[in-house]
Design goal:
CATH architecture: Alpha-Beta Barrel
Largest sheet: 8 strands, parallel, barrel
Shape: globular
Number of strands: 10
Oligomer: single chain
CATH class: Alpha Beta
Number of domains: 1
CATH topology: TIM Barrel
Mean pLDDT: 98
Helix content: 40-55%
Bound molecules: 2-O-methyl-1,6-di-O-phosphono-D-mannitol
Length: about 350
């Protein structure tokens, strides 16, 4: 029964032509984004921003699930309505980030390990009772000079798989997020190699931990050149490299792949997602998974820059958020064009 519920939830998240809104920034990350736009870094400002997000009119037209953070899943609108209830009423499935962040990986200078397995079984049970039906855990891999090490890839893949197995035991669909970082001078080809090696290790560990592939979602990076790489490939080349990489390593049983945006400009992320889906729709591709989005910055950032903590700008910020969500939904159907963007 749990297996069927997991498969149904995964299908609802990725199978309906919509994507996910990642609004699971930890407090330090949210505060950093607020500081960058001159917003006070307070509990109330974070609550007000998250209220703006979840009450955006017609958000459920484009968004199937929203990933919350521990602080946020416990919060309410000003009128006392829990955010989880607001989302459910909008037809959006609530999810929860359950890793507790990255720490230095002992013995591997410059590399990180994601923490959060201690007490996870109990936390997952509590989150399920609060209304969450899926979860997320992110591990980071750096492709900087001389990295990543095999030890880092395997330790993080093992953590992702242990997390995913615990989620499924608790009735939550695990979103498995191994992110090869964009920062650096590495080429797109190097990103493809590292992403491929990482995903191979992740799926080997998922299999070893008996994770039901039909009841999970993969959240990878797109295959991109490093931000400081002199050669920046075009949208179609990025899409082709991304599909090539995923097709080699992601089992067909996985129902969906929901890309992170990783700091890409919002419009470029939509264009690349669109090109990926155009390949997927071609008669020869026959890709087995839905290819959707699970963006944070590429959906939120333009709206955040309008809001800047001002009550008077809530409606305009919500319009901007809904617009980005619509653009990304269009990209799932290969229907996004820059003509959709304001002049
Ligand atoms: C890679 O970050 C995830 C997707 O966001 P972008 O689309 O902006 O890349 C995101 O869900 C991330 O995991 C959360 O924001 C939590 O990040 P922190 O660093 O606070 O754990």
């Amino acid at each position: 029964m749990i297996a069927q519920d997991l498969m149904d939830t995964a299908h609802q998240l990725v199978g309906g032509g919509k994507g996910l809104l990642a609004m699971d920034e930890s407090t330090p990350t949210c505060d950093e984004r607020f500081a960058g736009t001159g917003i006070p870094q307070t509990v109330e400002a974070r609550r007000a921003w998250r209220e703006l997000l979840v009450t955006t009119p017609r958000l459920g037209d484009s968004i199937s699930g929203a990933i919350l953070y521990d602080e946020t899943i416990r919060q309410q609108k000003k009128d006392g309505t829990p955010f989880v209830k607001v989302l459910a009423e909008a037809g959006i499935i609530p999810g929860i980030k359950v890793d507790t962040g990255e720490e230095d990986l002992a013995g591997y200078p410059g590399e990180k390990i994601t923490e959060g397995l201690d007490g996870l079984r109990e936390r997952l049970r509590d989150y399920f009772q609060m209304g969450a039906r899926f979860a997320k855990w992110r591990a980071v891999v750096s492709p900087a000079e001389g990295l990543p090490s095999r030890g880092c890839i395997e330790a993080n893949a093992h953590g992702l798989a242990r997390y995913a197995a615990l989620c499924q035991e608790a009735g939550l669909v695990p979103i498995v997020e191994p992110e090869v970082l964009m920062a650096g001078e590495h080429t797109m080809e190097r990103c493809r190699e590292v992403t491929e090696e990482t995903l191979r290790s992740v799926f080997a560990q998922l299999s070893a931990q008996r994770v039901l592939l039909e009841g999970m979602i993969l959240k990878p990076n797109m295959v991109l050149p490093g931000l400081r790489c002199p050669k920046q490939e075009g949208v179609d080349e990025v899409a082709a490299a991304t599909v090539k990489c995923l097709r080699r390593v992601v089992p067909a049983a996985v129902p969906g792949i929901a890309f992170l945006s990783g700091g890409q400009p919002a419009e470029l992320a939509s264009a690349r997602l669109n090109a990926i889906n155009i390949i997927s729709m071609s008669a020869t591709a026959r890709l087995p998974w839905a290819l959707v989005f699970s963006f944070a910055r590429a959906i939120q950032q333009p709206a955040l820059e309008i809001w800047r903590g001002r009550e008077s700008c809530v409606a305009l910020a919500q319009d901007t958020l809904a617009h980005r969500a619509r653009c990304n939904r269009a990209a799932l159907h290969g229907e996004y064009t820059t003509a959709m963007e304001p002049a």
